Amino acid sequence: MHGFANPKRFLSLVRWLTPTMLASGLVLAAVALAWGLWFVPPDRLMGETVRILFLHVPAAWLGMGGWAAIAVASAAFLVWRHPLAALAARAAAVPGMVFTAVCLATGSIWGRPTWGTWWVWDGRLTSMLVLLFLYFGYLALAQAVAREGGSSRIPAIFGLVGAINIPIINRSVVWWNSLHQPPSITVGKSAIDPQFLAPLLVAVLGFSLVFGGVVLARMRALLGDIQADARLRRKAGEAA
Amino acid sequence: MTAPADRIKAKHQRLVLVIIALVALVGAGLLAAWALRSQASYFYVPEQFVSEPPEPGRAVRLGGMVEEGSIRTMPDGVTIAFVVGDGKARVPVRFSGILPDLFVEGSGVVAEGRLGGDGTFVADNLLAKHDENYVPRELQEMTEHQRRDLVAEAEDGA
């Protein structure tokens, strides 16, 4: 595992892993969305609006997964001080934020016809909105540290502390009465009919691969930025 | 230059510190969530409503199941009356307005409104609650057994 923490070896790995993950992820996500939009029967109560499921659930999963990735990378950075871990955390923030926003938007569009409201301040919706704001804060902090110079430990600590929201989001529909329904998929059990579940799992896998590909591509770009910066500084030093 | 043994020791120290911080953090979060457990609920269930009724006129939300066979339309044609229950208590509700698509008997509902003087809950907004089950329309009338037969048939045919 430590072998991949070497930037050179990491770069040679991502050179082929990034396009592979992006391409396979995009194909799987497209197949799952087409499957869900055109080939799945309507739901007994919700009718056609059930099709939002195939975008809403992967977005929710990756919005939360993105912060879990930030937290794990931040903990690794704090303990082993490896700069690639800090880059991984920074790289996961933008896609995580985008998926969280997509989850909130699709949920709102779905809520209007089914529940009869765009938004309510129940436990699940509120904790998910807090996650979006945490992403805003994390990105602002990480960019300020990268630009102004400062310890990368500051965003790492923020990433670790913010992780407490993830189990709260997950448990919010169990702990408190909420308008959002309790979880449909729990360990080893699903209340979703196989006709809906199959395209949903493909969508989750596809979007997760896209997410991984984007994170690797962003890590590579951030690494390139840092190397270009260092080279410029060296040149300026020689010229002076 | 520090000796390698010192570096490994520092690493272990940081690992232990991060783990302690995480445990403290999770503990704090759980305590906060536990303290919020009743305040952060989105609605009252009928059982709470009957045992500790809110003062009449105070805006509250009532959530539960719409009892089977309880929906009646009043003579004015726009007001409906139904009963919200949770298996332990029942609260009669009155509402006039547009109903959400998912509002059906035997399904979940959250009513926003206030308790009237006569013990009826007067709702000025209804939100339909979806349960965790997703079932295609053509399979909803079938029993679990029939569904299994149908799936087996379809697989034989394929």
UniProtKB/TrEMBL annotation, chain A:
Report membrane topology. Multi-pass membrane protein
Which source organism? Pelagerythrobacter marinus
Regarding protein family, the annotation reads: Belongs to the CcmC/CycZ/HelC family.
Q: Where in the cell is it found?
A: Cell inner membrane; Membrane
Q: What does this protein do?
A: Required for the export of heme to the periplasm for the biogenesis of c-type cytochromes.
Keywords per UniProt: Cell inner membrane, Cell membrane, Cytochrome c-type biogenesis, Membrane, Transmembrane, Transmembrane helix, Transport
**For this UniProt entry, which residues form the secretion signal?**
none
Mark the transmembrane ranges. 21-40, 60-80, 92-111, 123-142, 154-176, 196-217
Q: What is its main location?
A: membrane
Domain Cytochrome c assembly protein: residue ranges: 19-180
User: What protein name does the entry list?
Assistant: Heme exporter protein C
InterPro entries reported for this sequence? Cyt_c_assembly, Cyt_c_biogenesis_CcmC, Cyt_c_biogenesis_CcsA/CcmC
